[in-house]
Amino acid sequence: MTPSPVSDKSGQTMTTNRIALVIGSGSVKCAAALGLMKVLEHENIAVNMVVGCSGGALYAAAIALGWPVERAVEATLRMWTNDITAKKNRRALLQLVLPGLFKFDETFGLIDDGLINRRLREGYQGTTFSDAKIPLYITATDLYNGDQVVLSEGDIANAIRASISIPYIFPPHKLNERYMVDGYQSDPLPIGVAIREGADLIIAMGFESPYQERITSLMRYNLQVSSVTSNNLLKTNFAFHNLAHHAEIIPILPEFKHRIKLFDTDKLPYVIEEGERAAEAQLPYIKKLLNG
Amino acid sequence: MSQRFQITRAAELESLQMFRDFIAECCAHHNIPNEIVFELKLAVDEACTNIIQHGYKGMDPGSIVLAFRIEPDRILVQITDFGHAFEPASAPAPDLNAALEDRELGGLGLFLIYQTMDNIDYQASQDGNTLTFTKYYRP
Amino acid sequence: MNIQDIQKNGVTVVQFSGSIDALTAPAITEHLGGLISSGQIRLVVDLGGVDFTSSAGLRLLLGAVKDARAGGGDLRLAAVQPDVMKVLKISGFTNILKLFENVDDAVASFG
Question: Is A240 on the interface with C (CB under 8 A)?
Fold first, then answer.
């Protein structure tokens, strides 16, 4: 790719490649983005925008806010622990059994979201999108019409909460008068946002949703169905975005030999390492593109 | 309670507008919701474009017969031509490296027909090739 | 199909009116191609007067937006009518293009 002339706000023409980093959904695996960041930082490759979806939104925000890797890891360990799903939403069970009497509505979720909301608020300490050092975009999905919603202003914790509303587990999040579900429902790897926002080179880290080894409960069945849909959506959208983008999209797809579960935060160092490895494998290509 | 309409036009790009206008006119008398009329125009336009650009390739341009029946809850559409049959099985594999805008119908156009119409079927015979589809609607 | 250009604050606003189909698409493609090759890569396409588009319209818009972006510019849409919006939505184009309610907002977005 040849560097393209772009007019900046002052009207001057400069030569630049706008580099976007897109981090897809994938719960704890998304921390691999920190490994990717380490590699880019080491090579002095500056990113001009960050897009995150679901688990990827946690790290997109950390990167955009300029947190060092250690701080991001520490924050994840504090925020994302097993106990955030410990408290069941008792009303949800009643809503399931007697939907009429207990008024089943769009706020349904099996887990009480009080703790995760508090953890996110503490973790991001009231920072807003305008605190980000690099433009940050977080995606969620409008429950009522399926539209992808791109959040780029207001409270970051709130946007992340919307983006991680895993259906059935966490209640949809009401934001700007809309009920939002998980960003992966509209696009597990929202490269389209980077295309629309004018990126040239797009580095996209994506993850396939894991399949269940055995389906032994309604919840596992639900997760399985959800993975099937989401993985197909990932592939179709990726094909479309590749055709629709005028420049390069570099997919970085870390491979994990160990199974990473929803709350396997003890595997974070391993996940970050795999992210680093996957990024290094693409580095020669990225450098070649940047040097024209 | 059903009414049938039919129009025959030359298989040339100039006819596309006539097909669309014909649909609009027939639907106007039957209180068909606007978005349904639009989707019909879109699907018929895509199908006819394909026939015009590919169906009669290397032949004298023939004609396209558009017939449809308006029923209280559905519209049945039939498009007939007398050119080459569309054979997805023998068609060359799509060029995945081609830019989206350079790809021919079978890609985006066919996708739009599948997105908007129901019960899509295609039959090729010596008497011509017939594409049929149905659009359900709530009056 | 009528095509008209207006210059506003360094942005070229292209106004179409009529229907975009396989018959009318080549002239529009050529028009947009001419603008881009002459360096007019900050483009707003005003679709306020377009009541119909087939996939031919999608293909030509995508070709033009990619060329404009490759040159460091962009092509943005304004005043898209509901029927045309539906085609843009079901084909995923609303996620990769910038859309604005009216021409002034679209022009202002170029900053």
Answer: yes
pLDDT tens sequence across A26-46: 989 999 999 999 999 999 999
The whole domain housing B14 covers 3-136
Radius of gyration over every alpha carbon of chain B, rounded to an integer in angstroms: 15
Residue-range domain boundaries for chain C: 2-108
**Residue A227 is a catalytic residue:** no
| DSSP structural state of residue C79 | S
Is the pLDDT reported for residue B105 higher than 50? no
Secondary-structure breakdown of chain C: helix, strand, coil percentages, each rounded to the nearest 5 = 40, 30, 25
Within 8 A of C60 by CB-CB distance, chain B residues are 101
By CA distance, what is C54's nearest residue in B? B42
CATH of the domain at B130: 3.30.565.10
Over the Cα atoms of chain C, what is R_g? 12
CATH class (in words) of the domain with range C2-108: alpha beta
Total domain count, chain B: 1
Is this prediction's pTM over 0.90?
no
Task: Kindly indicate the confidence band of residue A15, based on its pLDDT and cuts at 50, 70 and 90.
Answer: very low
Which pLDDT band, with edges at 50, 70 and 90, does A229 fall under?
very high
ipTM of the predicted structure? 0.88
pLDDT value at residue A66: 95
Catalytic residue among A25, A54, A163, A165: A54
Nearest residue of B to residue C84, measured between CA atoms: B38
How many whole angstroms separate alpha carbon A183 and alpha carbon A197? 18
Kindly indicate the confidence band of residue A14, based on its pLDDT and cuts at 50, 70 and 90: very low
A217 an active-site residue? Answer: no
**A90, A263, A292, C53 from A86: Cα distances, Å:** 12, 12, 52, 52
Closest by CA position to A124, among listed A41, A181, A66: A66
Match 């070649």 to its residue by tokens: A288
Q: How far apart are CA C53 and CA A235, in angstroms?
A: 27
Give the model confidence (pLDDT) of A39-78 as tens digits: 999 999 999 999 999 999 999 999 999 999 889 989 988 8
Angle at A117 between CA A115 and CA A123, to 5 degrees: 100
pLDDT of C16 > 60? The answer is yes
From A113, A142, A182, A200, active-site residue? A182
The runs of H, that is alpha helices, within chain A are: 32-42, 55-64, 69-79, 90-97, 114-124, 156-163, 191-196, 218-244, 268-290
Task: Give how far B100 is from chain A: nearest CA, Å.
Answer: 5
CA A101 from centroid of its chain's CA atoms? 36
Q: Which residues of A touch B100 (CB under 8 A)?
A: 240, 243-244
